Please model this.
Amino acid sequence: MDFTINHYEFGQRPPVTIPTQDFLALLHEEGIRKLVSDHYDLLSQSEVKHLFPRIDEALEKAKQRSSDFFIQICGGHTYYNENRGRPMLAARHSPFTIDEHARKVWLECYIEVLSKLDLPEEVIKSFWDYLNTFSYWMVNTKID
Ligand code: HEM
Model:
């Protein structure tokens, strides 16, 4: 599986294709919640740990919100809309300083957890391609 991180110019919002519903069909909700939880645990020890909640309770809530979103985007139950409303994710990320480096670290943590999944390559690729492109939408700070 090729986990190359795409390069974009600052300010670009590349077109995004949502992931295949097979990702949810094969992993199930529990699998997506575990994937997201493992991702947050890596982020909490990463070079961008300052961005994420330090208190366990807050971290658990963050895991839940993100899992709700990924289940929904993969065609599952609309937990996110029910609990948080419209995603508007670029706007929700705007209070945080997210630069190219933060995106790289965030994606690298996903590479680590996605590599461990026992799923057909095309299913992982679909999810990875989505993260690879959509993550650039959250970059809101230019590195000089
Ligand atoms: C570019 C790298 C990214 C960084 C550094 C980043 C960082 C963050 C931070 C600091 C938060 C707030 C704390 C939290 O609730 O976890 C957050 C929330 C969230 N992120 Fe990201 N994020 C990135 C990309 C993405 C992408 C690509 C997605 C979706 C595909 C995403 C989905 C979410 C969701 C659903 C939330 C919760 C929003 C809410 O409060 O309802 N993030 N992210």
Summary: The chain has a mean pLDDT of 98. Residues 37 and 63 are 6 Å apart (CA to CA).
